[in-house]
Automatic annotation (TrEMBL):
Protein role: Could be involved in resistance to puromycin, acriflavine and tetraphenylarsonium chloride.
Designated name of the protein: NodT family efflux transporter outer membrane factor (OMF) lipoprotein
Topology term for the membrane: Lipid-anchor
Record key words, sorted: Coiled coil, Lipoprotein, Membrane, Palmitate, Signal, Transmembrane, Transmembrane beta strand
Coiled-coil boundaries: 348-407
Pfam families with a match to the protein in the record: OEP (PF02321)
Gene Ontology molecular functions: efflux transmembrane transporter activity
GO cellular component: cell outer membrane
Family in the record: Belongs to the outer membrane factor (OMF) (TC 1.B.17) family.
InterPro entries according to UniProt: MdtP/NodT-like, OMP_efflux
PANTHER family to which the protein is assigned, alphabetical: MULTIDRUG RESISTANCE OUTER MEMBRANE PROTEIN MDTP-RELATED, OUTER MEMBRANE CATION EFFLUX PROTEIN
Species name: Panacagrimonas perspica
Compartment(s) of residence: Cell outer membrane; Membrane
């Protein structure tokens, strides 16, 4: 026993020859306090937020997409892989027990430790028994590897949340585009009818000597252009339908008979008007990136622990004998136990390279985290700007539309009173159609921006709910990834 303790002491002394590097990663994670996140904290919007639009067809499409989309299936497969790796990382923490046996036909040396009559003879040598080994993990290497795998598993689970959020948002936005395309198609049909009427009226005026051939050619040129606009509008409807089919993993013609959307655009989900303080704790992709920084740091700690002696507790019990007839008799029993250590005395270059590789992985993870944070802040800031701009533009456009409709009403009255011709009325109607088209575009831009803001804020993702349903570790509002020395 004193020999074993001495060997362990020698190993510990020799480890000084293989000193782990002391350098740390160069990257620094961004902190919430430096990003202007000072608004009131935002709370998760209701689950299945798309139901606020009150369109059952949209609800069915989102549910179908969440069940069938290959992108979501890919994220789930990555989670399965991460969980499997976690199981592999946990395995060394448990004792390893094996049943081993050998049966050898060999010739013994006449000058070795076994004297005649066995020395120099061919004999059967047999051994069978249980062998146990248990890594005591004195320096926390296995613990660090488990932590790293666990954090990556949590990050993969959040990748699924991100995929679900993006998928539901993409389908909702495509559905809004379909609604927008239908509204523009209606206006295009009205414009085509109006241009056709204008051409007929101009022809009659030319025949009456009231207009010239130039006026007629202008009116005639407008008719095919209006038909092109109507065709483009119908093509936009079809493209929006194709986009929905792709998101639900269906064929391009799967929704050829889809009903016209009946979305309640006036329905408003409560959204903030400034950058919320808890933005970084609301975004699953940001939290996942932070967890991967911590996973890389745990991998660095494991690489550092590899410089120290690896101590195992070993034991064996079984039978060993010369001659198979004697293998399983009582006096052939053998057993033993004791520590076993492994020290990488002349492997420092490889270990140092692995340590520096782990540091580089941390820097890469921090860079990804910082990029994700900056992207999240920019997305929210941009969408808030878009919504504020759309709100102002809608107010101005409403005034413009009211003036155009008032002008159209006056033109109608003058026409009925015989003070103006039909051409004046049709021109006034054209201005109304243009104003309404602009308003449809602005309403769609507002709706799209609100969905985009909802997604940028993390949608209905709730870190607390995720924590209660898994091993996920929630973080505070001021999320920062810390690297341990």
């Amino acid at each position: 026993m004193n020999f074993r303790l001495g060997a362990l002491l020698i190993a510990t002394t020799l480890s000084a020859c293989v000193t782990p590097p002391s350098d740390l990663p160069k990257g620094t994670p961004l902190e919430a306090g430096t990003l202007g996140l000072g608004g009131a904290p935002v709370h998760p919007v209701p689950d299945q937020w798309w139901k606020a639009y009150g369109d059952p067809q949209l609800d069915r499409l989102v549910e179908r997409a969440l069940d069938r989309n290959p992108g979501l299936a890919q994220a789930m497969s990555r989670l399965d892989d991460a969980n499997a790796r976690l199981g592999v990382a946990r395995a060394p923490r448990l004792p390893k027990v094996t049943l081993d046996g050998t049966e050898l036909r060999e010739q013994l040396s006449e000058r070795d430790i076994i004297p005649p009559p066995y020395g120099g003879q061919w004999i059967w040598r047999g051994e069978v028994g249980l062998n146990l080994s248990w890594d005591l993990d004195f320096w926390g290497r296995q613990t660090a590897l488990i932590d790293s795998a666990d954090l990556r598993s949590q990050a993969s689970r959040l990748d699924i949340e991100t995929a679900r959020l993006v998928l539901a948002g993409s389908l909702a936005r495509s559905y809004l585009q379909l609604d927008h395309a239908y509204r523009l198609a209606d206006l295009a049909q009205q414009a085509e009818l109006q241009r056709t009427q204008l051409e007929k009226l101009t022809r009659r005026r030319v025949e009456a000597g009231l207009d010239t051939q130039v006026d007629l050619r202008d009116a005639q040129a407008a008719v095919p252009l209006s038909r092109i606009d109507a065709s483009d509008a119908q093509a936009s409807v079809e493209r929006a339908v194709h986009a929905l089919a792709a998101l639900t993993s269906d064929g391009a013609d799967a929704y050829a008979g889809i009903s016209r959307p009946q979305v309640a655009l006036q329905t408003q989900v409560a959204l903030p008007t400034e950058l919320p303080a808890n933005l970084l704790a609301r975004r699953p992709d940001v939290i996942a990136a932070r967890l991967r920084v911590e996973a890389a740091d745990a991998q660095r700690l494991a690489a550092k622990a590899a410089f120290y002696p690896d101590v195992d507790l070993t034991a064996f019990a079984g039978f060993g004998a010369i001659g198979l007839d004697n293998l399983l008799v009582g006096d052939a029993a053998q057993m033993g136990f004791g520590p076993r250590f492994h020290l990488p005395v002349f492997d420092a270059k490889r270990l140092k390279a692995e340590y520096h590789e782990a540091n580089a992985d941390i820097d890469a993870a921090i860079a990804i985290y910082n990029a994700t944070v900056l992207q999240a802040v920019q997305q929210v800031a941009d969408r808030l700007t878009d919504i504020r701009a759309a709100t102002r533009e809608l107010a101005e456009q409403q005034t413009s539309l009211e003036h155009a409709e008032a002008g159209y009403g006056l033109a109608e009255k003058r026409y009925r009173a015989g003070l103006a011709n039909r051409l004046v009325v049709l021109n006034a109607e054209t201005r109304v159609l243009d104003a309404r088209r602009h308003r449809i575009d602005l309403i769609d831009a507002m709706a799209q921006s609100r969905v985009a803001l909802l997604l940028a804020l993390g949608g209905s993702f709730d870190p607390a709910a995720t924590a209660s349903s898994s091993s996920f570790v929630p973080i505070a509002a001021a999320t920062t990834a810390q690297v341990t020395p």
